[in-house]
Design a protein that fits this description.
Structural class: mainly alpha
Order of helices and strands: HHHHHHHH
Oligomer: single chain
Radius of gyration: 62 Å
Number of strands: 0
Largest sheet: none
Helix content: over 70%
Distance between the termini: 154 Å
Length: 323
């Protein structure tokens, strides 16, 4: 049990060292759960190099699961061939002739048996007996355990040699890890088609809404003009209604307003006539001056025309005489 605990603890530490982020410990391998162990194997498979090839046995098909299993088998074989205890004990002197090999040599003072107390002798006696019993039991069980492990490894190798094709676990892994690229492209194309259809539908709705908006705008303009007319009619009717409430007083007020407006118009007309008279005189004066200038200009034009005709006649006479 102690050896199993040591091996599983080392496996857990190795998985954590390569980057496994979930909770892992000796209990993951010692009291194995299919889901947890499968998750660990999937992580270890992902950590393997992508371009490795198995050149030792070209006939055997290569896949990541087989390579991982071969690594595990080799690691287990090395551990079974080696010692189960990594740190030497000071009481285990059967495999070492130099005492403690991991420590440097020191000068130990000479101690006789007389200088050792009875309590120390009794302690080392009990400790030595306990260690011998434990070591003997381990030594007795170790060959049998190693033989059984070697037989299991040979059986496992024979099984994988017979089944050279990929295991169902690897096929399941590939099915889950690497989906078909064609399926992905089809899914993406379907999404693109859906988006294009939605865009066309939105554009069609936009055109319909724009046409409806133009129609509604024209209706709003027509309603605005009708509203303005109704407002004018409302004002007239309100004023008429006010007059009809008290007709005598309101008619008298209206007549006074009309008379005042007539007087105002007369005053404005008188002022206009007063202002218009000098303007008309100035206008007539300018027109007379303009007519004189026009007549003078016309005379000058007539003189120029007559001079031109005379010059033409003179030229003709000169040409006839010269001929």
């Amino acid at each position: 049990m102690a050896q199993r605990f040591t091996v599983t603890a080392r496996l857990a530490e190795a998985c954590s060292a390569v980057g496994y982020r979930r909770d892992i410990g000796y209990q993951t391998f010692l009291y194995s759960n299919v889901t947890e162990v499968r998750r660990v194997f999937m992580f270890l498979i992902e950590q393997l190099p992508k371009d490795t090839t198995d050149s030792a046995d070209p006939e055997t098909p290569f896949d990541r699961v087989t390579d991982m299993e071969n690594r595990i088998l080799e690691n287990m074989r090395q551990q079974l061939r080696g010692s189960w205890r990594t740190d030497p004990s000071p009481l285990d002197l059967r495999n070492s002739t130099l005492g403690w090999p991991s420590r440097s040599r020191v000068n130990i003072p000479f101690v006789t048996q007389r200088n050792v107390t009875a309590e120390i002798k009794e302690y080392w006696l009990r400790r030595s007996g306990f260690w011998d019993e434990e070591k003997d039991e381990v030594d007795r069980n170790l060959p049998e355990t190693a033989v059984n492990a070697e037989e299991s490894i040979l059986k496992l190798q024979a099984y994988y040699a017979q089944h050279k094709s990929k295991s169902a676990f690897a096929e399941d892994l590939e099915e889950h890890e690497t989906p078909s690229s064609l399926d992905q492209l089809d899914a993406v194309q379907q999404e693109i088609d859906k988006i294009n259809t939605a865009i066309e539908e939105a554009r069609r709705e936009q055109r319909e809404l724009q046409s409806k908006r133009s129609i509604v705008g024209e209706n709003v303009k027509a309603l605005d003009s009708v509203t303005e007319k109704l407002k004018e009619e409302k004002k007239i009717k309100e004023r008429t209604h006010i007059l009809l409430e008290n007709p005598e007083v309101n008619v008298a007020k209206l007549e006074s307003i009309i008379a005042a407006a007539g007087e105002k118009m007369k005053k404005l007309q008188t002022q206009w006539e007063t202002h218009r008279a000098p303007l008309m005189a100035t206008l007539q004066e300018h027109q007379a001056k303009n007519s004189d200038q026009v007549s003078k200009s016309q005379k000058v034009v007539d003189q120029i025309e007559s001079a031109r005709h005379k010059s033409e006649e003179v030229i003709v006479d000169l040409q006839t005489k010269s001929a």
